[in-house]
Write a structure and sequence with these properties.
Blueprint: H1 2-61, H2 66-76, H3 78-99, H4 107-124, H5 128-138, H6 141-163, H7 171-196
Helix pairs in contact: 1-7, 2-7, 3-4, 6-7
């Protein structure tokens, strides 16, 4: 009796394993198809936004590669661009640091933020020679990476001020809000090599 019971138990266990493996295989196929479908949807969503933005730039300038000229001009003004970024960063940093001193008594607490922001901006204006020396020491990397840095800065601005706020908008408006960021990504792929030639 125990031998037949053991054989029956083994047969039932085998049936269960077969059933579970069949269920897993059939569930994996639709999940894989769904993942593949979502990738194509993502590509279509972002690709159409990028093409629409590129066509708008092309229509406005009359030149399909108009951004290459802009990138080329940006490469010749890397030091002034670097100084501008340093001034903006030091001003913002000074403003934030001044917020920590708001608790000072009297007018010192009120003047802390503007004074530190102004001091940061004035200090950063003198960083031109430092940036020039740094670029000379790191050559040719600053010139090679600058197009990506410029595109990254534009992309960050698009994401910060447009993409984040478009999350709860309707689908067509979200797609329209994606156009600037997708255009920056496509343009960096198209224009950056041209700026280096």
């Amino acid at each position: 009796m125990s031998a037949t019971a053991a054989a029956g138990k083994a047969a039932r266990s085998k049936k269960r394993q077969k059933k579970h493996s069949k269920g897993k295989g059939s569930a994996a196929a639709p999940a894989q198809a769904l993942a593949q479908s979502s990738r194509w949807r993502w590509l279509a969503y972002n690709g159409t936004a990028a093409v629409a933005g590129h066509c708008l730039v092309w229509g406005a300038t009359g030149d399909a590669m108009a951004g290459a000229g802009f990138m080329g001009r940006a490469m010749t003004s890397l030091v002034p661009l670097g100084v501008t970024v340093a001034v903006a960063g030091a001003t913002y940093g000074g403003w934030k640091a001044g917020g920590l001193l708001r608790g000072l008594p009297g007018p010192a607490g009120l003047a802390a933020r503007p004074a530190l922001a102004l001091g940061g901006a004035l200090w950063a204006q003198g960083t031109g020679p430092l940036i020039t020396d740094g670029m000379a020491a790191l050559a040719p990397w600053p010139v090679l990476l600058a197009p990506l840095a410029v595109a990254g800065a534009f992309g960050a601005v698009c994401w910060l001020y447009l993409e984040r706020h478009a999350v709860n908008w309707s689908r067509p408006l979200r797609w329209a809000a994606r156009i600037p960021l997708a255009t920056v990504v496509l343009s960096s792929a198209l224009y950056s090599p041209g700026a280096l030639l």
